[in-house]
UniProtKB/TrEMBL annotation:
Its EC number is 2.4.1.64. It comes from Ephemeroptericola cinctiostellae. Residues 332-693 form the Glycoside hydrolase family 65 central catalytic domain. Substrate binds at W365, D366, K605, Q606. This is Alpha,alpha-trehalose phosphorylase. The gene is treP. It comes from the Bacteria.
Amino acid sequence: MNQTEHHTSAPHIAIEPWAISEPEFNPSQAALHETLFTLGNGQIGVRGAHDEGDIWAGTAQNDVFMNGFYESEPIVYPESAYGFAKANQFIVRVPNATGITFKIDGVAFNPNVGELTEYSRRMDFQTGVLTREYVWTAESGQQVRVRSERLVSFSHMAVVAVRYAVTPLNFTGEITLISSISNLPRAVKAGDDPRVGASLGGLLNYVAFKSSDNFSAFTHRTHHSDLEVVSSAMHATAPASTSHDEQQARFVFDHIAEVGQTISIVKFAAYISSQSVSKDLMVDAAHSALSAAHAIGFDGLVAEQTTYLADFWRNANVEIGGDVSLQQGMHFSQFHLLQSAGRDGKTNIAAKGVTGAGYDGHYFWDTEIYVLPFFLHTRPEIARKLLEYRASTLDAARTRAREMAHDKGALYPWRTITGPECSSYFPAGTAQYHINADIAYAIRQYTDVTGDTSFLLEQGAEVVFETARIWPALGQFDANGQFGIYTVTGPDEYTALVNNNLFTNAMARHHMQFAVNIVAWLSKDHPATLESLREKIGLTSEEIAVWQDAAAHMKLPYDAERGLHAQDDAFFDKPVWDFANAPKDKYPLLLHYHPLVIYRHQVCKQPDVVLALLLLGHEFNNEDKKRDYDYYEAITTHDSSLSSCIFSIMAADVGYTEKAYDYFMQTARLDLDNLHHNTQHGVHAAALAGSWMSVVYGFAGMRSFGGHAKFSPFLPAQWTHYQFVIRIKKRLLQVRVEAERAVYTLLEGDALKITHKGMEIEVVAEQDCVMTL
Ligand code: BGC
């Protein structure tokens, strides 16, 4: 397939492998591009709005976010009930300290008057720099070339840097550069779309402004959550004058410039929140971050960023031969994943990363089931930090379990920032108890794939035990001795509050077995740890026996006549949604039908049984997998961005290679092509990771369950080859798949046993292992 054939929906982004660029300024794409051009480092996210701010037509959210920096408000239910989530936490923007604009002989830049030419903007995945250039001719006829560069440092987590240059092209005159820190208001309304963030309106409260020499810092505070943020700036050279009020500070630089003489400023901005530094030390912390950045300089920061990214790509790059637009989609996904992940053990990955306020900046199961595999196999230390975040909120999960009438154990929230349940719609929220099993599954994957048992010993075992305790409380053994789990919702949000959701039951079974295995391992190898844990959480042998029993007799609904797994006990009793007569403009269904209408039918928003077939593939036989795949594919709308990638992988698993490719096409450029029409609110982090999974788990057929990598690769007909690296058991393995062969190369570490198409092989250093497909 040639690139242009499928690349029709985003002609506004040029196709190239290592960058995205826009060749012209188009206000109708501005909101979308703000998301795509977001720069972030897991802690800070600067949306890709223009340096000069809202004066650019189409500017939607000229925002800066800090991962996990939230406001909190009581949730008001017209009809409340016991145990409903009490308060919402939602991400709020912090002041924008990146702004810079200019005046020519006292006349302010305005892209809407005069003429804008030679415009281009480019975000480079290898340097991490966003560069923008244009020529502006003012109404006076005076012409300037403007070039700005921006980066959000991966090495200095508090720091954002901007270099801004203006060159008069046809005159000598006064160029005034005005740099700012701004907390000016704006408001976005969510309407009926649950995927848009609830509220961004409302200013942060002013606390203080401090200025000394070349350093200025605001402190602002949230209204209810009692969080403070310092937004600060230091310029490479001190400004001629500084002024401020409670919401804005302005730094003015005056120059008389000759024709052709470039006037530039470099601005370093730093953000510190009271979530990581105590309030009295925040301004000092900002000052040291800025002094360090100032000493390194803009070019130095670019050099550091380039080195950091070179290392990232060495450990993560997926190469796709034969399709530049998909290659771009893959690099875009990987780059944005890197930008999304909180890595301090206190923050996580929001559904929209740090690119927007969609889904209120909440963390979901998206992290453990979709995004974690990417980090696990490329940057395992980040995977660990993501799990540490969950461990750090275990107490909140305990509290939630009590609210839900569980006298012991922990129930993780469906959506949250710092731990409490923030889902106000329990049928598709709290009822998704599978979150507990998802976290346990991720802990197991981390331990098996890295071989690092220290997380399990220090924190993980306690999380797994506490969360496992909930399952016996959700059901009972039936007359046939089978254990059932009642009134939960599985991953498919178009079906709610069911008995024996297959995904939940299968994952709960795995969870309880894992818990039992941990007990056995601890009692053999770390008896003291087991003893102290038993004491700490009051774990009894009886409980462990119940886990064993419930897991051994877990009910997995199955229609033996048709050879199909049922999504839940009653699923097959319901009528199938009338797809044949469903108008196209009624999708996504969630925006056009009351949930009850949807719940009454066999219709899936996203994989549920099919996801279980992937995560626990070794527990299902191939015939069942194929039948289940066929059945559920026909009734799935893919209204969730979490859907296509899993169908791509499972299509590959059951042998539908073309379908695997088609579904990959639905996920590989999902945000770049705005396939879900809401990327303006932020990227879809789970789908970004889904692109990676589709190649590694789908086309290459990798499974690393238990810590042993198995592959059964094929090459999509459209490509010449693909290649990726994965980390497993402290090795770095390169996998290259060509038309007729797969080549495994050990880049780091000791010899590694892997399985290729059912055959165990050993890959050793300095010797390619070439296998036929
Ligand atoms: C999906 C959930 C997902 C959430 C956040 C919803 O649309 O149905 O599975 O966790 O989005 O990405």
